[in-house]
Every structure is written in C-alpha cells, then in structure tokens.
Amino acid sequence: MELFELSIKQAGEKLKSKEVSSVELTTAALARLEAIEPKVKAFLHVSADGALARAGEADKRLANGGGPPLLGVPIAVKDNICAVGMPTTCASKILGDFVPPYNATVVEALNRDGAVIVGKTNLDEFAMGSSTENSAKQITANPWDTGRVPGGSSGGSAACVAAGQAIAALGSDTGGSIRQPASFCGIVGLKPTYGLVSRYGLVAFASSLDQIGPLTKDVTDSAILLQAIAGRDPADSTSIDYQSPDYTAALDREIKGLRFGLPKELFGAGFQPGVRDLINQTIALIEKLGGQVSEVSLPTLEYALPAYYIIAPAEASSNLARFDGVRYGRRSVGPTDMVDSYMRTRAEGFGPEVKRRIMLGTYALSAGYYEAYYGQAQKVRTLIIQDFKQAFDRFDVLISPTTPTTAFPIGAKTGDPLEMYLSDICTIPANLAGIPAISIPVGLADGLPVGLQIMGKHFDEATVLGAARAIEAEVSFTDRPNTL
User: Fold this and answer.
1) Catalytic residue among 9, 41, 78, 413
2) What is the pLDDT averaged over residues 299-324?
3) Is 177 a catalytic residue?
4) Catalytic: 264?
5) Among residues of the chain, what percentage have pLDDT more than 90?
6) Contact 341/335 with Cβ under 8 angstroms?
7) Catalytic one among 131, 172, 177, 239?
8) Which entry of 21, 22, 135, 153 is annotated as an active-site residue?
9) Which of 9, 90, 206, 361 is least enclosed by beta carbons within 10 angstroms?
C-alpha cells in the first residue's frame, strides 16, 4: 500500500511506531497531489513549504511519544474556511486573493492536534452548487471518471481524498455539500448536528443551515476527525454546549436489534436503477444481520426542496451583502460613485448561480412577500423537524440513498438549475432539521460509486457512526479510482 492510500488511523499507527515520519508522509501526499492535480484540479491553493514545516514540527512532537490521532497527518481544507497564511477565496472572483488574518476554530483545532494542512480545496462559488462547476477558478473532475463531476459544493475536498492527495479533508454542508460529493467520489462524508461544530471562520452561505464536517476514507476516520473539531465555541453563538462522547468507542456495535426507518418520500420516482438496486441490496443485508427495517412516512419531506430554496437564498442574500468591494476583496475599476461601485463590483465579482440565489433571496425577503415565501418556508421547516422527531420515536436511524444518481457528466445539468437542485433531494431534509447524517459507499453502479445516507437524532452522532461502521464492515467497499 502506498503512503497516500493510508487512512488516518493507519497513518497514525505508522507515525507512532516510527515506521514512517510525518515529513515522509506529507512528501508522499504532496508528490501524489502534484502528479495528478492537472487531471483532478481539486486544489485552489497548495502550501507545500508550510506543510513540510508543520510536518517537521509534528515529528518533533512524535519523538516525545504519543500525541493526538491527527498528529502529523496531511489534511486538506475547503476554501471557504479561513486559515492564516492561505487565501480564502470561496472560489469567487469577488474575494480575489483575500488572506484572512485569523483561523477558523476548526483550523485551530487541527493545528492544536498537529495535523498538517496541505492546502485549500475547490468548491462551487460560495458553496452554492452540487457539482463544483460553479467555481470561478476551475472545474474539479471526479477521480473515478474525469469526464464527470465530483459533486458539490465540497467537490474539491471529496475528490482530493478519493484520489489520495490528502488523507482526509474538511468540507461544509448546507444542503448536502459534504454527503453528495462523498457519494459521488466513493468516500465517507459526515454532516454533524447543527451547532456541534463551530462555524466561526466559515464564510457564511446560509447561517441556519451551514455545518462543517469531515470527508474521509472510512467511518473510523470520520469519527476521529469529528472528535477533533467538535465542541462548544464562544466565538460562535450557534455553537451548543454539548459534551461529546468518545466517537471512536461508539464504532464497536452490531446491526442486530438496531431499528432502521425507510422514509418512503426519499425512495420515490426518478432514481437511477443501479442506485436503487444497490440500496435495496444493502437494506436486505441489514435485515439479514438482524436489523429491524420498516417503512415510515414523513409527509412534509415532499416540501423540503422548495422550502430550502427559499430559506437558503434568503440567508445568502443577507450574508453576501457584505461583499461590496469596500472592506476586502475585488473592487471594480473606475466607478462614477459609491452606488455604481457597489453595482459594478458585485456584477463583475459574482457568478451566475450566486447572482441567481441572491435575487431569489432578496425577492423572498422583500416587503409584501416575506410572509408569503420566507415565513411559510420556515413554518414548513418546523413541520419537517416535527416529522423527524416522530420518526425517531420509532427508529434509531433513518436510511435512504444519498443521491438519486451516480456522478453525472460535466456540463450535463448546467443548463437546467432545477435538475441540478434535484441532486440534493435526499440530503436537504437533514439540514433543515439540523440532524446528523452520513454518507457511506455501498458499491458501484456502472463503475461509479453509490452512497447510503444514514440520519440520526440531534447530537446522536455516536449511533449514526456506529450503524455506519457496522454496515461498512459488512459491505466491505474497498474499490478505489483506477483512472489516474
């Protein structure tokens, strides 16, 4: 096995046993990154010298014996998460080469534990998209088939982990932006409970929906990385004072006796036959192993997609008002006055999808329409939360396909925004409800990965991870991209 193929756990064991150094591990990751980056285009910024310096510091800590599980491990970070000394562009022209003067809380956590941040990954502009085609910088390719998308918006993070350019990565999930690309790229992606992980230093898209989480090669790594970044943060007013359990200890559980609910609204028409077949095979496997599987109805999930595309654009309209060419980032040249400067800067700086969502959100918040659109969407959201609570009275977890299809060809959906939005039909409900959800690979359909989504109760990541690990062990998905 090549060094870049290691998991966090495997790398940590080799580092602690002195079988390999962090400098050697980081050098291998950087070499892999350099070799295949022209094909994958997962990164917007690579900090090779900084990474090797951090690896050297990690080796000094390792020489003293022990250390956190992430010590010396190469990690990538999505480029909407602030890190000192690295540009944070959100893949947008309007931010130019902005370098933040502070670290996001999750970056501070990685630094505290001695992780080696190798660079910042590509995304849909301001995390608005499902394919990473909305990036103003470049289009990231799926390592399984470079003619297909890696998903979005955390497409760069998912692609780099699947391709071995980093051992793990951080992404953000507003409507499926960790889980959907994880499904498309054949890796594990976890959206934690809203408020479990600090959003301080995450450039906001929709503040009541955004959540940072891990993209990893397996469920164990997901638990390790979540353990490092979870926790109360006074700098984030939405961060919850919750004492996290030992997530790795929760991984050792059986499927037998676990109650699995199948939301019938997430198993409707429009699913690719190969996706449906693999999910059904996985359900049959769960039943064979003693899991209790029953169908359940959450009637309001029918309205999740339209509710999301009112709430998220409304919050985006508010959050992105600060990007005006005055305080930071790009400014239009030669405006006639301040208003002209604002208009020209935003017109030139934002891409088509961001403009579309700003306009939708501004309209939904405008006088005379607020209650009819935004107010109604929030009421639907409350009903969705209630539906989930009732379902979890009967079930330990809920499962569904992560996405209706496998990764689609680059350019296939760019002309039809609604078809693109439907890519997130299974993932959006968890964001609206604020519950934890994970995607794990369960097989290949037509040579491309398929993900199973597992959703749990608020702050019950332990059960979600335990169920995911038990299924992962039985499915034994070990395929990796071989096109690079």
Assistant:
1) 78
2) 96
3) yes
4) no
5) 91
6) yes
7) 177
8) 153
9) 9
